[in-house]
Design a protein that fits this description.
250 residues, mainly alpha, Four Helix Bundle (Hemerythrin (Met), subunit A), 11 helices, globular
């Protein structure tokens, strides 16, 4: 069933925009996604249904990597990455309809945590088959494990029953914690070039130029560096919290 909108396309865009600044590539993704959002808003589709849609597209596209040839790998990655436009759409719809849902954010996060490791595992298998070497399978699997640990090694104060949780949670708001929200424009641009889901990123061009095995090595190194950076930044921020607590206790 179609729904009539009272707003113009421009008014719809204004209501759908995020309240914080985005990197250049992220802004381009949102601009491309707005026409899709406009179409979806004329239906009763929910943000969670859109999340499920792009998650399913990414999930099933991963198995095309297993063909182990150039065209199969390129097609799989193209489909996988272009689903990111729908990832922008679910947020657009939620903001337009003024839907605030932590469940929806968690569902979105789950989709990413399922599809990104799966994509890298399947890509590794495909590249290993394409080049006839198990070495690339090992590199890809290692990169996947490091990526997963980058997500796991996040300090969660809630599980310890800490009374002054806010002081600790503030580290998550620190620009040092995530390159995505860094005040350094170069760091943000660099981060976006290596975001797995983004179209025309470093991984895409290594696949396009048929050097996907080099792409696996590069991302193994990048994921390793990000893991070390994230652990270091958290320890540094937590030390600041510790010093503050010791000062206030005197």
């Amino acid at each position: 069933m179609f729904v009539k909108l009272d707003d113009s396309f421009k008014e719809m865009k204004d209501k759908c925009k995020r309240t914080y600044k985005l990197g250049i590539r992220q802004r381009l993704i949102h601009e491309v996604a707005f026409p899709i959002t406009w179409l979806f808003l004329h239906t009763k589709i929910t943000p969670n249904q859109v999340t499920l849609l792009w998650g399913a597209i990414q999930f099933f596209s991963c198995f095309l990597f297993l063909k182990g040839n150039y065209l199969g790998i390129l097609l799989a990655l193209t489909i996988y990455q272009f689903a990111i436009f729908l990832d922008a759409v679910d947020g657009h719809i939620a903001r337009y309809r003024k839907i605030q849902s932590f469940t929806g954010l968690f569902f979105d996060q789950i989709m990413h945590y399922i599809t990104i490791p799966l994509m890298f595992v399947c890509l590794s298998i495909g590249v290993a088959k394409q080049h006839g070497s198990i070495a690339w399978l090992i590199v890809g699997f290692a990169a996947t494990i490091i990526y997963v640990y980058t997500k796991l090694l996040t300090f969660n104060p809630f599980i310890y029953g800490i009374s002054n949780v806010k002081d600790v949670v503030d580290i998550l708001d620190s620009p040092d914690y995530s390159l995505r929200y860094s005040k350094n424009k170069f760091a943000v641009a660099l981060f976006e070039w290596f975001r797995i889901e983004h179209p025309f990123n470093i991984l895409f061009f290594t696949v396009l130029f048929n050097i996907s095995h080099i792409g696996l090595v590069v991302h193994f190194l990048v994921f390793s560096a990000e893991l070390l950076r994230k652990v270091y930044s958290q320890v540094r921020q937590l030390n600041k919290v510790d010093k503050k607590l010791r000062y206030e206790s005197h």
